[in-house]
Design a protein that fits this description.
five-stranded mixed sheet, 10 helices
């Protein structure tokens, strides 16, 4: 009767690469799943009441998983037919995996993970989505997962098979995926393991608007978008020359444009003071420290006629001649002399660099 492993061996999916590169891919993929691969020296397997089997690891690499499962990879398919039975009859956690010379790397990996009891390898047709509240979405061809209910986020590895001149994923994306317990391995059909080098982004520290005070938040926001605000400025209401008395009111923040002086207050004023300040040509803007920072931001931007939009923003790699992936998050986009996106969560440094370099997207948070 034909076994599932024998059916896998008959797969039409072929990846042509040199044997050395093929073995390097297998080692890399297995190592990422916390397995060890020994391909030099000898391995000695005792057979109870009989003796021991000596295995030449250069011809039959040994794979040891962290669940005590051990596989022997018969790369040349030269092991005697009854050796598999001898091994399995003697040790329940030891298995011989027979590999044909024409088996490509995917077929070999499918045989390995079909034998390993706590792993699965499945073909993918839907995109992978990782991260929260910032998400990244991309396609891989296969997903290898370890079925371990003790882990909140089981270890997973996606294999992306590349042909010809396919663009590689940015290293920042792959690093972000790894931080979310998803390993991305890119494999050239001709050359084996491939990948972009590390990217170094020269970024200033991310601007963080203080969220405990509406006054400080407003000042930081307006400073960041280049409006040169001033804080704690005394605004004269009455003067001795004109009114016979001197009276000033301290503002929280003031900012000027070509037409108006905007005065931002985070406290209440009496109707009389409001009337005097308004008659003097000031535009009053009232904010409240008890409200969410997002409300303060919208109030200030709307009062100063600064264009902004709240929404779910998607950045497509393909649209920028990158590999096919998207980066996504909720936030507020402020349009001034630059595209500024304001978010309420911390963001990965490398991802921020990627957004800045590819899309000229500046990020600030509160």
């Amino acid at each position: 009767m034909e076994s599932n492993i024998d059916k896998i061996a008959g797969s039409d999916e072929r990846i042509t690469m040199p044997p050395e590169a093929r073995l390097a891919v297998i080692k890399h993929v297995l190592t990422q799943m916390n397995a060890t691969v020994t391909s030099t020296g000898n391995y000695y397997l005792p057979i109870p009441k009989t003796g021991q089997i000596t295995i030449d690891c250069s011809k039959m690499p040994v794979v040891e998983f962290d669940d005590s499962t051990t596989l022997f990879l018969d790369l040349d398919n030269k092991a005697p037919d009854n050796l598999r039975k001898i091994v399995s009859d003697s040790w329940s956690n030891f298995h011989l995996v027979k590999i044909n010379q024409k088996d490509d790397v995917i077929v070999i990996l499918r045989k390995i993970f079909a034998t390993a009891k706590n792993y699965s390898m499945t073909k993918q047709s839907k995109p992978v989505t990782i991260g929260s509240p910032f998400t990244a979405e991309f396609f891989v061809d296969w997903i290898i997962s370890k079925n371990d209910t003790r882990q909140a986020r089981p270890l997973m590895q996606g294999l992306r098979i590349l042909y010809g001149e396919n663009a590689l994923f940015p290293k920042a994306l792959k690093n972000y995926a790894r931080k979310n317990a998803f390993i991305v391995t890119e494999i050239s059909a001709q050359n084996g393991i491939v990948g972009k080098p590390e990217e170094i982004y020269s970024l200033p520290p991310m601007i963080v608007y203080p969220s405990t005070s509406a006054k400080d938040f407003s000042y930081a926001l307006l400073s960041d978008i280049g409006l040169n605000p001033e804080k704690d400025v005394d605004i004269k209401v009455f003067s001795t020359e004109k009114d016979g008395i001197n009276l000033s009111i301290k503002s929280d923040v003031i900012v000027k444009d070509a037409q108006y002086q905007y005065v931002i207050y985070s406290r209440e004023l009496s109707p009389q003071f409001i009337n005097v300040l308004t008659q003097a040509g000031n535009k009053l803007v009232f904010v409240n420290s008890n409200e969410p920072p997002k409300n303060t931001m919208e109030t200030v931007l709307r009062a100063l006629n600064i264009t902004f939009v709240n929404g779910y923003f998607t950045f497509s790699g393909a649209e920028k001649k990158q590999a096919p992936f998207t980066l996504n998050f909720n936030g507020t986009k402020i349009k001034t002399n630059k595209d500024l996106y304001v978010i309420d969560f911390d963001i990965d440094h490398e991802i921020r660099g990627l957004l800045q370099e590819v899309w000229a997207a500046n990020i600030a948070r509160y």
